Known about the structure:
It is a single chain. By secondary structure, this protein is an all-alpha fold. The model is unreliable at 168-176 (pLDDT under 50). Helix content is 77%, strand content 0%. The longest helix is centred in the middle third of the chain and has 37 residues, at 46-82. The protein contains five helices and no strands. It is globular.
Amino acid sequence: MPKTKFQGAVFGLIMSYTMAFGMEVYNIAVKMGFNLKPGGFSSMTNTVFLQALKETLYMGIIVFIFSSLWGNRIGEKIANKYCDMKKDNAYFCRIMRQAGTILVMCPTMSLVATILFSIILGGQSWLNLPAIWLGTIFKNFPMAFFWNMFFATGFTRFVFSLIFREKVKNSSETEK
């Protein structure tokens, strides 16, 4: 996948915005009560996606910054405790790195969301920050895990491969 720092940054931006969009759709749908309506999330309307897109514009860059500063690094360290790239299956190691990164980024972004949406914009007391943060982690972790494992990573790898296609020389060029 990414072979240069520039490619790594592009991959990181795609992943950050994909994760942010999925989490914003989920949280806005919960806030609007779709999880409690008959049909659950299947009863969502396009309003959820529009509002999620607006919030994703700034939340995606926050995800990118925090994942670049510590999320990816600590996630890799966690993964390295359970797999060795030299002797273990590369796919297993990739899954472990994803899981490690989720273990760091979900609490990080839940704290950001708690401060921004519950405390600053929601008017909750700062004294309630620990309880609200923990509740936000409980709510967000399952979605963050499954969204990352089963959609965001695959989507990001697909889009990245479209952007950075390997130039394959055709046989006539190699014969010259």
